[in-house]
Amino acid sequence: MDERRKDVRDKVIFGGVASSDTITPKDCVVxxxxxxxxxxxxxxxxxxxxxxxxxxxxxxxxxxxxxxxWWRDNIVGVAFTDPADQVAPPSDLEERLRKSEKKKRQLxxxxxxxxxx
Length: 117
What we know:
By secondary structure, the protein is α+β, with helices and mostly antiparallel strands. It is 20% helix and 39% strand.
């Protein structure tokens, strides 16, 4: 079989989420990735739109717009669109930090009450 990719893909196992305007987000596993595309695998046969999806990979901290190139059962090959169009997924880090600081203050108050301060 002739290799038609521009770049060699790195073998990885990253958790991802594929979504689009027409489907609910679906968890997937990114099996290999390059600068220009990836091979993603779903638990079951995936029902995806024929044109474009968004692929968020938390471990890389990125979200890619991708065009579906090939599709076989639950495995899909995608080509990423122009990197200038790619944006990072929204982060919940700020919210988690705020909750953590609130919990810390509550625990500190309990400690002070127990110590009689």
